[in-house]
Amino acid sequence: MGKIKNISENESIIDFSSFDDAAAFNIGGNTILQSVDFFSPIVDDPYIFGQIAAANSLSDIYAMGGIPKFALNIVGFPSEDLSLDILSEILKGGMDIASKAGVPILGGHSIKDKEPKYGMVVTGLSNGNPIKNSTAQKDDSLILTKPLGLGVISTAIKKEIASKQMINDAINTMTTLNKIASEIMVDVGVNACTDITGYGLLGHLLEMCKGSELCADIKFDTIKFIDGSIKAAYNNIISGGTKRNLSFIEKHIKFSDNIDKTKQLLLADAQTSGGLLISVPKSKEKELQAKLLDANCNAMKIGYMTEIKSNFIKVS
């Protein structure tokens, strides 16, 4: 997209020239947020796949502190090879998660495809000014609201070596909406936020650091992982996407000697419907964590923002 010249529009607040999670546009004094996401199945159950895809699609609006108002389905489906009952289950899963979020699905579009794909265009309103990923401040604390390891477990599922407990834990994580965490961060007042998805924790954190012109200092041992994911990673259950993630960003990161290659890959692990990464003023850190804990959000402090030195991210 960087090679494409866009038209100039005075009402545009956020477009693809930044690394933010959704577009923002002013219409009649209201800030409209819009995002789109879709992908192929990462689990065998079509209903659960629909749930995961919907939660993932809604997440970008939540990451900007917005309120999703309605959604449109995007579907690719091999109707000549698979029963339409499977598609019905996918759509039902998406509808149930959208209903849980209070978001009506008003329509959509479908095409024939070689494999199933599902996701949503989500339109929302900003709850005040959109929370960008480029407005972190020096000395902010970094709070992560979901454990990592989803990409490792998704790869283990494809290889049919994931335990039932690993699968259930991953599904519970991926189908959990970021709605409550978003509402809490808006209430507390934070400086920046993004959600952790395909680029992994390090990739999305790098976007935050570059946009904010700051460095992040994070501690590996403070980060929670879904049970079984670390062991699986050390057994080389790592996706190609995760390896590409690390290869693309590692030049910007200083790893301490205790952070071996597997730990580096775990931090670059491509997530689906991951948690929010919140940059909050140190003075509000305890309030944010307490409210997230009361809401049963599995939040953790993983580091802080500081001045840029030789790298954008330091991991120890």
Throw out a few tags for this protein.
316 residues, alpha+beta, 60s Ribosomal Protein L30, Chain: A, Phosphoribosyl-aminoimidazole Synthetase, Chain A, domain 2, seven-stranded mixed beta sheet, six-stranded mixed beta sheet
Characterization of this structure:
The protein has 316 residues and is an alpha+beta fold. The protein folds into 2 domains: 12-126, PurM-like, N-terminal domain (60s Ribosomal Protein L30, Chain: A, 2-Layer Sandwich); 141-315, Phosphoribosyl-aminoimidazole Synthetase, Chain A, domain 2. 35% of the residues lie in helices and 25% in strands. It has a 7-stranded mixed β-sheet, with helices on both faces. A 6-stranded mixed β-sheet has the order 1-2-3-6-4-5. A hairpin with a 2-residue loop joins β2 and β3 (30-39). The longest helix has 18 residues, at 46-63. It starts with 11 loop residues before the first strand and ends with a strand.
Q: Overall 3D geometry? A: globular
Distance between the termini: 34 Å
Average residue pLDDT = 93
CATH class of the largest domain: Alpha Beta
Question: Which fold name corresponds to the CATH topology of the largest domain?
Answer: Phosphoribosyl-aminoimidazole Synthetase, Chain A, domain 2
Largest sheet: 7 strands, mixed
Quick one: CATH superfamily of the largest domain?
PurM-like C-terminal domain
